């Protein structure tokens, strides 16, 4: 069988398993879809060899590895029963559902061992775990950010999974943006020096925006240089070139690392995604908007529904402000927010 045909078979099989959860692996490789010819033992063995390739960058191995570790890390699915995630018990259950032979189980675990990861520690008086992310469902900017960290920053799977768990735990402590009831949450996230705190709060912002949050204010230090650096990190790692094309700070004078800025491949609205509006720039902190005060407003697509209704919420742009922790700056922002027509409690 040609490698392209085999890769297609593997892709369809793993795609089906991603939706269904762990199932009989050999059966899915044998016949991944009704219109695909049934494979014999030789083809199935070749497919297994591809997903367990010695090449760590092999596309089939990368896809299987990502799927396997997503199962290791699954939090809510029915099939997990009572097994804690990222444990030997969870991996044993996965093998049982995959119907792995002892030989296949050993091959998989030798090549792709599970990661022992501590659960994020959450101390909260009131905590409702409303956030239930689904791959491919309102996770666009989060997925793009993970891709950036993997491909551009060289993050390993263990670090990415740890950040996935911590950002999810933080978001669960916030309110559901689609809920009609008001809910106020304040919290403190602690991290060591050089432990990836900026990456973490960019990740939280990405996941919050995907979930429906539409006003994100980042208070980044008390000095211009710190605020500017933080703005630039958001621009480079999350918003991307398509949303910076009209900013002279980047287009007229491209920075030395411009090639490393994330690219989405198209304007957000061209791929049915929400967009972002930057109300601050790399060298421009927040200023009173005056005649441009409507840039802080939100225009509802469905006039008959409140802003938090999904028919409005997920089509609105995210307004991003990266500001200094400076009284005058914050007073200006509060004053402008008090002038907009949008009801902020919505």
Helix-strand category: mainly alpha
The largest beta-sheet arranges its strands as 1-3-2
Computed Rg: 23 Å
The span between the termini is 57 Å
* Helix share bin: 40-55%
Order of helices and strands: HHHHHHHHHEHHEHEH
Low-confidence stretches: none
What does this structure look like?
It is a single chain. Helix 12 links the parallel strand 2 and strand 3. It is elongated and about 70 Å long. 43% of the residues lie in helices and 4% in strands. The model has no long low-confidence stretch (mean pLDDT 92). The chain contains 13 helices and three strands, in the order H-H-H-H-H-H-H-H-H-E-H-H-E-H-E-H. A three-stranded parallel sheet has the order 1-3-2, with helices on one face. It is mainly α and 346 residues long.
Short description:
With 346 residues, the protein is mainly α.
How are the elements arranged and paired?
Blueprint: H1 3-20, H2 25-30, H3 41-51, H4 59-72, H5 88-98, H6 102-111, H7 140-151, H8 157-172, H9 197-211, E1 215-219, H10 224-239, H11 248-251, E2 276-278, H12 310-313, E3 318-323, H13 327-339
């Amino acid at each position: 069988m040609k490698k392209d045909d085999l890769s297609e078979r593997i892709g369809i099989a793993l795609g089906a398993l991603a939706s269904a959860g762990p199932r009989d692996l050999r059966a899915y490789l044998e016949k991944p879809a009704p219109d695909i010819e049934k494979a014999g033992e030789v083809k199935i063995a070749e497919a297994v060899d591809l997903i367990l390739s010695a090449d760590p960058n092999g596309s089939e191995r990368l896809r299987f590895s990502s799927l396997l570790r997503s199962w290791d890390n699954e939090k809510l699915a029915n099939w997990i029963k009572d097994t804690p995630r990222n444990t030997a018990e969870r991996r044993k259950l996965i093998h049982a559902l995959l119907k792995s032979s002892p030989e296949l189980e050993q091959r998989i675990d030798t090549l792709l061992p599970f990661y022992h990861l501590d659960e994020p520690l959450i101390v909260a008086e009131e905590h409702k775990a409303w956030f239930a992310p689904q791959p491919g469902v309102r996770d666009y900017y989060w997925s793009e950010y993970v891709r950036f960290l993997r491909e551009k920053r060289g993050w390993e799977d263990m670090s990415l999974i740890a950040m996935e768990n911590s950002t999810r735990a933080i978001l669960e402590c916030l309110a559901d943006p689609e809920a009609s009831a008001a809910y106020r949450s304040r919290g403190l996230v602690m991290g060591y020096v050089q432990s990836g705190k900026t990456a973490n709060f960019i990740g939280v912002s990405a996941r919050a925006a995907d979930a429906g949050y539409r006003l994100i204010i980042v208070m980044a230090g008390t000095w211009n240089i710190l605020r500017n650096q933080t703005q630039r990190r958001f621009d480079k790692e999350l918003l991307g070139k398509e949303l910076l094309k009209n900013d002279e700070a980047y287009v007229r004078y491209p920075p030395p690392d411009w090639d490393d800025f994330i690219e989405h491949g198209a304007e957000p609205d061209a791929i049915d995604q929400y967009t972002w509006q930057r109300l601050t720039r790399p060298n421009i902190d927040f200023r009173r908007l005056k005649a441009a005060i409507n840039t802080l407003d939100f225009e509802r697509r469905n006039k008959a529904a409140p802003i938090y209704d999904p028919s409005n919420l997920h089509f609105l742009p995210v307004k991003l402000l990266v500001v200094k922790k400076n009284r005058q700056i914050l007073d200006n922002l509060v004053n402008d927010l008090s002038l907009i027509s949008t009801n902020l409690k919505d």
